Write the structure tokens for this entry.
Amino acid sequence: MRKTVFILTLLGLAFGVAPQGRAAGVPAPSPTEGAGGGAVHEPARRPRRVPRAVTVAVSVTEDGFVPSEIRARRGRPLRLVVTRRTDDTCARSIVVPEYHLSRDLPLGKPVSLTLIPRKAGTIHFACGMGMVQGTIQVR
Ligand SMILES: [Cu+2]
């Protein structure tokens, strides 16, 4: 009985898998191809694996953004949770121009923004007027 199953498995490998293997080099006709071009190519664009985000808490005080220098890794999502803790500042919003990010900072309310640093170097962030500043150092 067990032998029969084994032989059937071998037959399956020989006659079931081999034709597929031969066809692998040839582009298989896809039912979705042509209909929705974007959907067909989407998986190739997506990164294979996005690492978990690193969260950094940032306060806005009379001293500005604290910390004003944040370290990050290229390709690793960085989540800033920014809380404005004073009314005595012009920094009532935060903008990251290079990443087209902008958030209002209501007093005492944590506001999060996430970006994935694309390359090593410095990413600048600032208040809406660009007076209070900080940097993200990416390596
Ligand atoms: Cu400002």
In short: Residues 90-91, 127-129, 131-132 surround copper (II) ion (CB under 6 Å).
